[in-house]
UniProtKB/TrEMBL annotation:
Domain PPC: 1-121
Name of the protein: PPC domain-containing DNA-binding protein
Keywords, ordered alphabetically: DNA-binding
Coiled coil (UniProt feature): none
Pfam families according to UniProt: PCC
Highest rank taxon of the organism: Bacteria
Length: 123
């Protein structure tokens, strides 16, 4: 069953979701600041707000959080990438989450990609 969540001002978007086993199906809201790892970059890029969350989706497991977001700034420029710690909710973040059974998702090192990648366990 899908679950609706509302994050509050000051919440760290990634931090609040850590430790869950689920997929984030959709998300909207606003941020005071963000840390996104852009495609091909080694580390995060800091963005100062106000920022609008246009899209948010990804997978959550106790082994790690893998979220992607698209954000727009006050000039309407759009940024997108991996959500890192430091994405701080401004007024709200409204999420639709699909919880999964504990242990059904995990992340394991993949030598071919160089990243922790999703592992789906059969129930």
């Amino acid at each position: 069953m899908l679950q609706a969540l509302r994050l509050l001002p000051g919440d760290d978007l990634r931090g609040v979701l850590a430790g869950r086993t689920a997929f984030v199906v959709a998300g909207i809201g606003s941020l005071t600041q963000a840390q996104l790892r852009l495609a091909g970059d080694a580390g995060p890029t800091h963005l100062d707000g106000p920022l609008e969350v246009l899209t948010l989706s990804g997978s959550l497991s106790p082994d790690g959080v893998h979220l992607h977001a698209s954000l727009s700034d006050a000039a309407g420029r759009v940024w997108g990438g991996h959500v890192c710690a430091g994405c701080v909710v401004h007024t709200t973040a409204e999420l639709l989450v699909a919880p999964l059974p504990a242990g059904s998702l995990g992340r394991v090192w993949d030598a071919a990609t160089g990243y922790l990648e999703l592992r789906v366990r059969d129930s």
